Amino acid sequence: MQNLWQKNSSLNASPLKPDLIFQICNSIAPIGWLLMIVAPRWTVTKKLILSGFLPLLLGLVYLTLIILFFGDSEGNFSSLQGVAKLFEDPFALTAGWIHYLAFDMFIGAWEVNDGQKHNISHFLLIPCLIFTFMLGPIGLILYFTIRAIKTKKLFHNAD
């Protein structure tokens, strides 16, 4: 099945291509991570990253790709082969990558906010943030481990 981009030749003239979307989002995300690592208490970091603004912005790019192109790929989520086929489509692959960028950054922002709330030294958060940026859940596991050691509790009541 051809995607909407291929079906509508007027869209082919548009500069909005999956490679460009990927490049823009993939260039913006490291800036957010750098701000969380080196300047977590800076007003700009708080407003752009820790507030959830940048993850939300990435989420809106993701939503746009899903609205425009979801269902145009031949793949599905019911098997590993179906997922592989789904991500053969450049727009689905780009959307999938942006999904990771948005959610990992949201988790990183949560780690910073939660770490500050529990008075965990930012130097202990830095490895968590690096691992969350590079390897998602491993950084989250590291953060929970550090938080449990520092607070003597694995889980905390939501407050």
Distance between the termini: 48 Å
Class by helix and strand content?
mainly alpha
Q: What's the assembly state of these chains?
A: single chain
SSE arrangement, N to C: HHHHHHHHH
pLDDT averaged over residues: 88
Proportion of beta-strand residues: under 5%
Contiguous uncertain segments of 5+ residues: 1-13
Helical percent range? Answer: over 70%
Largest sheet: none
* Shape label: globular
Q: Number of helix segments? A: 9
How many extended strands? 0
Computed Rg: 18 Å
Q: Can you walk me through this structure?
A:
The protein is mainly alpha-helical. It has a domain at 4-114. It has nine helices and no strands. It has helices at residues 4-7, 9-12, 18-38, 43-50, 53-69, 80-86, 90-117, 122-135, 137-151. α3 packs across α4 (43-50), α3 (18-38) runs parallel beside α7 and α5 (53-69) packs antiparallel against α7. The radius of gyration is 18 Å and the shape is globular. It starts with a helix and ends in an 8-residue tail after the last helix. The relative contact order is 0.11. Residues 1-13 have low confidence and may be disordered.
